[in-house]
Amino acid sequence: MIRSERQDFCVRPRWRVLGLVRDWRPSPSEPIRVSCVAAGTPVPNRLDLALPPCGPAARIGVDLLSARPAASHRIGWFDLASGERILLRRPGQGDLVETLSDTRDDSAFEFERRLAAILQPPLQALLAPSGVLDWPAPLLPFQQDGVKALLERRELLLADDMGLGKTIQAIAALRIFFTGRRLTVHSLLRRQDLWGSGYASSTSGHQTLGLFRCGVTRQPAAHYGVCPLTSRSSDMRLCARMSLV
Amino acid sequence: MPIPYHRVPPSTSGPLAAYLLSTAGKTPKELLGGLLVIDGRGQPVEFVHNCIEVPSGLLWPAPGVEAAGFAALAHSLFEACRAQPDLLVIEHGLGTPHYIREKVAPLIPTCIVSQSQEDNPSTYAWVNEAPAIGTSAHLLIEELAERGFLHEPFDRIRRALAETYGTNEPGT
Fold first, then answer.
1. B16 touches chain A (CB under 8 A)
2. pTM for this one?
3. Does residue B72 sit at the A interface (CB-CB below 8 Å)?
């Protein structure tokens, strides 16, 4: 909660005299009836003087401007210790927890996930040398396009000539998902390897074929894994689901 | 033999900044407000939003009503926010520094950020007393400026409000 010195305030209505006032009733309970006699007719500006400083209109203004309690969404985090999950906390409605085996199709749940995705920093800011990832050097433009494509699609096979940075693009996409707190990781590699030793070392010894999505297939929380060439046949079947670009 | 340890829950460490934005809703009567709390690296921590219905029409001057509605919105967002930011950032044009200081009246360091132009980067000005050099608020605003997050979170809030209340995103 942000503390503030809350003050009561009144909004004075703008009294614009459009015509001659008839049936003037100063009682607050009675409505003020205004009728226009003729356009352009000079009329005495009596309303400003007649109204009390804080009349019924001002009280109405205060009543109308009292806001309802605001809704709060707490962006979930990736909890490695208690298993893969995304936690979205809603006040008064209980925590919203997602696991890999979760297959709920709740519109409110989808909304919160979209909201969490919208509130993430932009890709350019993430990949900047001073960005969240502390990326050591800027990616080349075509590599940034690759990372962006990985982040935007559900399934994607990243293919290019040798030495053009497929691994670095895959690592960048993975790190963005991690830092974005919207990734439930399901990796073909051991999880502790992927997390503890860093992505570069965990993928060393494997030729990164690409990123693929598995598990729950709902945006924006994507599930990617790094697929080595030496994958088992079952893993390769998952790779077969990838769409080629 | 296991070594006992205390598992620290994952949480955002470091100072937090709250970005406050108010924008028009689908109808002239609606005024939307969003409060996005981010850390120094631009990562979102909490998002609070609300909608208020303001009187409109002949008798109600739009600038005055919007300003009062902005203060009411801000207070409702402040009360719902559970994070404890060290800094409040408000977009330029939502209110004069005097109005923010007197009516919104935040008790944390508050600054107004103007959007960057073609050549000029985003700038900020303190509404209340500027925090001393070396304090968390001062270090945070410097970090946000260095990482390019001085004004960018307002765009996120606009998109999130458009997603929440179904309004068209400005400029689209």
1. no
2. 0.62
3. yes
